[in-house]
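We modelled the chain as a single entity of 359 amino acids. Its sequence is:
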Amino acid sequence: MVKIHTFLGVIWGGLAIAMIFVVIRLFARLKTFKKLFADDFFVIFALILALASAIVWQIFAKYMFQMLAVAYGSPPGPNFATQFEHYSKSSAAVVILFYSTLWAIKISFLIFFKRLGKNVTRQNLLWWPIFGFTMATYFASIGAIPYSCFMDSLDEVLRNCSTNSAARFQEVALKLNCAWDVLTDFTIMLIPISILWGTQMEFRRKLALMFIFSLVIITVVFSILRTSTVASLTRQPDPSWLYMWSAIEATVAIVVSCLASFRSLFLQQDIRSQTPVHYNPPASLNRFLQGSNSGRNRIRDTQDTLDGLTGNASYRTHIHASGGSASNTADSKSNCSAEFIGLHGVHIKQEVDLVNESV
């Protein structure tokens, strides 16, 4: 059994860490993109749920430890039945908040990956089935909660929830929910893998993006660790250990969702430290770009987002034809070379000079 001060300390300490990471995430997004996205709001929602869970435990944790004291041999007090009802109902609320927190983070990742690969056909085929599977596992996890053991009276709980079959059901439900948690994380990981699989970029940058996306595995590790630790303690899980490890997993999930945003915090500084490209191409190149821009825009959107994650941002360069008034936009990299990928397998590469220009 965990001590009550340790229990509350871990919960509030984890919440404080999660808050710090969310604030940094939001600061990075606002500094880089000047706005927040839908996935940011789901992270904020997850933090609010974690805060609500911490508040519930601050109020009702004492009843849980009074129940545990009786289970370990202390005599029950005169208000034992009332205290038990307070504990059991608060536990039901915390369990729902816990799963809602985890799945809010999963939805945040899904929305982020959808925006990241919005022009990748393979991603569009994967996203909706994985989203449907994720939502189905959320409702399955919520549905597997033994509500009768939380909401019924003390007499009903002692009669129906203290049997061997009830203990086995709780153990199976705990492991099954862990399996759904892990399985959804791995299926979500398929989306960024499919995006990177068909994207042409340096192998080093692909490794950097794969590292960012694989951070989800940290949550998987903590989910397995929570289940294995609690299940190994006793056949019927000790609620103090169970809820403490659940709070730790929720904290880790929020922190992991924020880590991918930290690179963008320094993106503006990286962009300002390098200069954009300005040049006047030949008229033939300008005509070629006019014909191929519609095909390149779909590639550029996804490529720009991938570049932003690794700090290899593309700069917008205005191309003015020397003999006309037409104007197009192309991408130029900081290595002083602009490469235009055209239609029909045609590749044109134009070396350019850098000039100072404020961003």
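As a brief sanity check on the tokenised model: The longest strand covers residues 315-320. The two ends are 58 Å apart (CA to CA).
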